[in-house]
Amino acid sequence: MELPGLSKGELVIAKLLCDRSPATVREIFESLPEDQPMDFATVQTYLRRLETKGYASSILESKTRIYSSKSQASSIVKRTVDELLSRLFGGSKMPLVRHLIEERSITSDELQELKELVDQLAEQKKTTAKSKQARKK
User: Fold this and answer.
1) Which domain holds residue 91?
2) Does residue 118 form part of some domain?
3) Is 68 exposed, middle or buried (0-12, 13-18, 19+ CB in 10 A)?
4) Residue 120, C-beta contacts closer than 8 angstroms, at least 6 positions apart
5) CATH number for position 98
6) Please, are residues 58 and 69 in contact by the beta-carbon 8 Å criterion?
7) Per the domain annotation, does 131 fall within a domain?
8) Alpha carbon of 8 to those of 13, 22, 34: distances in Å?
9) Rounded to the nearest 5°, which phi and psi values hold at 84?
10) CA-based R_g, the chain, Å
11) What is the pLDDT along the chain (137 residues), one digit of tens a residue?
12) Residue 31 counted as domain residue
């Protein structure tokens, strides 16, 4: 089942819920980063929206609603990046990669990590291609 996209605010709350699940509205509110302030009522609204969209579930204990994430942070990030790629770049990955490398200051360590990742992916592609050829024979 494909879940709907998240707004910027919903994304902030979804990531916090993933890290702290299960959590009350107050616990999420108190864990907000200082550079992303929100009203308590806004946090509550975002949590309700996350539940409606299928990213969270909740139970009522006494008079307190406790929310749990139904998604892992990595799947939320993947969905968000996929949506970004689709909307901005028509699904093409290279313009985003090029932008990140050329327009953002990439450190030597990050560049080395990127090279290692590319080498690793190239090796995986070779291995996959070889195993497909072996199965055809």
Assistant:
1) 1-104
2) no
3) middle
4) none
5) 1.10.10.10
6) no
7) no
8) 9, 21, 16
9) -60, -45
10) 20
11) 577 888 889 999 999 999 998 999 999 999 998 888 899 999 999 999 999 999 999 999 999 999 999 988 888 888 888 888 888 888 888 888 888 888 877 888 988 999 999 999 999 888 887 777 777 76
12) yes
* Tokens linked to 63: 């008079």
Residue 95 near residue 89 (C-beta atoms within 8 A): yes
77: in domain: yes
Could you tell me how many residues make up the chain? 137
Beta bridge partners of 61: 64
Place of tokens 């291609």: 129
Which residues lie below 8 Å from residue 32, measured CB to CB, with a gap of 6+?
A: 12, 16, 38, 43
Q: How many CB atoms lie within 10 A of CB 69?
A: 21
* Residue pair 71/55 in contact by the 8 Å Cβ criterion: yes
